[in-house]
Structure formats: structure tokens, C-alpha cells
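Deliverable D5.2: sample structural annotation.
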Amino acid sequence: MPRFHQFHIDLANIIEPIIPQDWAGDPCCIISNDCGGKHALPIWHEKEDGNAIPYAEADLLIIKNGEVKAQVEIEEQEHSPTKLFGKLLATSKCSYCQYKRGKDGPIEFAKDFIFIQIVRPIDAIRPENSKKPEQSESVRKDILKMDLKSISGRNIEYHLLDGSREKIANDTRSILESMISN
């Protein structure tokens, strides 16, 4: 039985019309089983000894010109600073995704990489009293100050999206359409 969450599926449904799924074009997206897709998407860190170990599983990967150009991570349940920083740092240390597409083989991460982290809108009784938006903004600012290239060896363009579902959808479309045109 696949494991998925409705917010993950909603976002995959926003992305798929912009970027087709599973090698239907270039660019294309690969949607994980968390988002209603058919695949686990392990991303791998290559150790100094040449061996690789999985560091994380991605929610959605975007392939352009044969490389992983972008990763979308959806924080539906828990989006503490530890989770937000942790997902980005784990990804920044990875160099490829292992994915079966006709033949087994790694798909390398692009040198110019986009990491989109999406935080589910607050469903509190009084969302105006929540400190989560302020906390997310503080994390976003701190991450943008980090020298991710020194950690990863890649240029990582970071986006933390939150707010209403409509705002998240519009921001996601804007980032992806810009990526397609470049």
C-alpha cells in the first residue's frame, strides 16, 4: 500500500501539468510514493572511499538535460527548524538519485540545483496566533546566509514556500516556469 498524504498529492498535481511525469519529456518530474507516485526516490551521498550510502528520500525530483535539476520537499506534518535545515543539508551532501528507468543507473545532481521546500499551511483554530510563519521566515533567512556551495560543491538556489495553498501553488509555478526557460 503506498504511503502518501493529501497535501503531497495536491502539490504533485500542481507540478505535473507544468513538468510532465516519468520521462514524458525534458524536463520531467519523478513523483515519490509519498506524493501518490510509484517510486521511492533515494538520494545518495558518495563517501570518500567511493562507496555510496542513501541519505534521504526525495518527495519529487525534476530532471532536465539528464540531470536532477531540482528537488521539491514537502513538509506536511512536522516543519521545525531541525527538519527544515536537516532536509536541505542532507540533500546538499548527496550527488545522485538512484532510479530505475529502463536500466538501473544513477542520475547525477546538476551543478546548478534548485531546492524547493514547501511547508503546509497552518490549520490551527487561530492561525493568526501561530509563531510558525515567523519561525519559517527566520529559517529561510538563515539558510540564505549559508554558503551552501562550500558544503555541497554545487550552486544551490533555495526556496522556502509557505502561506496559503494558492500562494504556494503560484510561487511553485513561478519557480518551475523560470527553471524551464533557463
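Annotation notes: The beta strands are 28-31, 42-46, 52-57, 60-64, 67-75, 96-101, 103-119, 155-161. The chain has a mean pLDDT of 86.
The annotation will be released with the project's public dataset once the embargo ends.
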